[in-house]
Design goal:
Elements (H helix, E strand, L loop, with lengths): L8 E4 L35 E4 L13 H21 L11 E11 L4 E9 L8 E9 L6 E5 L44 H6 L3 E5 L1 H4 L28 H16 L5 E11 L1 H12 L5 E5 L17 H7 L6 H4 L12 H6 L6 E6 L7 H17 L18 E2 L2 E6 L7 H15 L2
Parallel strand pairs: 1-2, 6-7, 6-8, 8-9, 9-10, 10-12
Antiparallel strand pairs: 3-4, 4-5, 5-7, 11-12
């Protein structure tokens, strides 16, 4: 048990009782004035019971790796699909085409080769499409491991390089009158490209709204119309986070065609809502060698039952398109969820996972993110890994702890910093034995 009591937490199997009827159309079930303000007071964290990932649906104990793979894991993955993210999207992959549209062999002052590959999701139709930007170190032996991490405003915002193709589609954070060139390089501080290249890793990024708009617009745009298992009349339709995760899997398909990259050594990473996406992607696509969640918070790495910071009711009211209708019904009864986020991390096992928090980002509940790592540990241990490496207390600020599961809480706000990247590069070195 924890040496420090974070809350009155018990582990038990959650009884799967009948669920209340859901709304018949996507959207929040809560009016804004019905949602309580975010909780930043630890004394107000309720007592809760976590589902035990090592208890089978029939109540028996999961005691072997085979039982985990054959019984527990499929059951838990199915619950995340039915209750939260929806079914993982299915589409005709034969219609996907990759087209290299631009190559620069002397990017980053000659340190890297930059490739831009356009992904057509429904070829020969030209839309929907997304550009994958890849930076590959020049002076190292190939093929190299890589990070795949989506961006929020377009590939051209990650660098001031004028040769990077600007996204001409509107995006969520841009003023309607703003042109793509107006924001070139605005997000460059989040992207430690030279640091990554200097360590011998490739890095790939794609603008997430080219995959699917981050708006509640009825799933009419982006890749949703391509999904054969998309039906709004069903509670478990693939929601928007699932669409982004599917898009990242297609980006990995693309990386498999790039000879300079070792596609068996790709780490999927994401920040904030895209950290949630990376976790869900890694849970479903076991080709990814490891997963990084940066400040992913509610619906990502933070325990839902803690009801600290952003909570289930608020996230569904603010972003009704991210999750399924079924998840919207749990806002006032979070303890009835048959899953919690430690099990999302456990679904990645035995592959390594890194969860990162920031001390000023209480909205994302750093303690809840840490506890998810702690309670995922038994699954990792069962599968023969060191798991969380015996960590049972929150670490000091700016200290990375753990083993196969790693965690840090750095100083600062909701962001991606050079410190984060330094920790992720050290993590990657350990994952790949470099």
């Amino acid at each position: 048990m924890l040496r420090i009591v974070f809350s009155k937490v018990k582990i038990s199997n959650v009884c799967l009782t009948a669920l209340v009827a859901t709304a018949c159309a996507v959207g929040s079930l809560y009016a804004a004035d019905e949602i309580a303000p975010p909780n930043y007071d630890e004394s107000k964290v309720p007592e809760f019971t976590l589902p035990d990932p090592l208890v089978a649906p029939d109540g028996s104990k999961i005691e072997t790796p085979d039982q985990w793979r054959q019984v527990a894991r499929p059951h838990i993955l199915g619950l995340f699909k039915s209750e939260m993210f929806g079914q993982f999207p299915e589409a005709d992959l034969s219609k996907i085409k990759f087209e290299e549209i631009k190559t620069q062999k002397d990017a980053l002052q000659g340190k890297a080769t930059r490739k831009e590959i356009r992904i057509y999701f429904n070829y020969p139709e030209k839309t929907p499409k997304a550009d994958l930007m890849i930076l590959i170190p020049n002076k190292v032996e190939k093929p190299v491991p890589a990070f795949l991490m989506p961006n929020f405003q377009g590939n051209h915002t990650t660098t001031e390089d004028p040769d990077v193709t600007a996204v001409d589609a509107p995006f969520r954070t841009r003023n309607a009158k703003e042109k793509p060139e107006d924001v070139r390089g605005v997000a460059k501080k989040r992207w430690a490209f030279e640091k990554i290249i200097d360590r011998g890793y490739a890095v790939a990024t794609v603008y997430y709204e080219e995959i699917e708009p981050d708006q509640s617009v009825g799933f009419k745009y982006g890749v949703h119309p391509l999904f054969s298992n998309f039906d709004l009349a069903k509670d478990d339709y693939p929601a928007t986070i699932g669409a982004w995760a599917w898009g990242l899997s297609r980006a990995l398909d693309c990386l498999e065609t790039v000879p300079e990259i070792d596609a068996s050594k790709v780490i999927v990473a994401g920040h904030s809502r895209l950290g949630k996406t990376a976790l869900w992607c890694g849970a479903n696509d076991e080709r990814f060698a490891a997963v990084i969640s940066n400040n992913s918070g509610c619906g990502g790495a933070a325990l839902s039952r803690r009801e600290f910071g952003e909570r289930v009711d608020r996230i569904n009211a603010s972003f009704p398109h991210w999750f399924t209708k079924k998840f919207h019904t749990y806002g006032a009864r979070v303890n009835e969820l048959p899953i919690d986020e430690h099990e999302l991390i456990a679904l990645i096992a035995p592959r390594p996972v890194y969860v990162a928090s920031a001390n000023e980002d209480q909205w994302a509940d750093p303690k809840g993110e840490f506890l998810s790592c702690y309670y995922a540990d038994p699954v990792y241990k069962l599968l023969g890994t060191p798991g969380f490496g015996g960590v049972d207390t929150l670490p000091d600020l700016n200290k990375s702890v753990g083993a196969t599961i790693r965690y840090h809480k750095r100083t600062g706000v909701h962001d991606v910093t050079d410190f984060d990247w330094e920790m992720y590069l050290d993590f990657a070195d350990a994952v790949f034995g470099r």
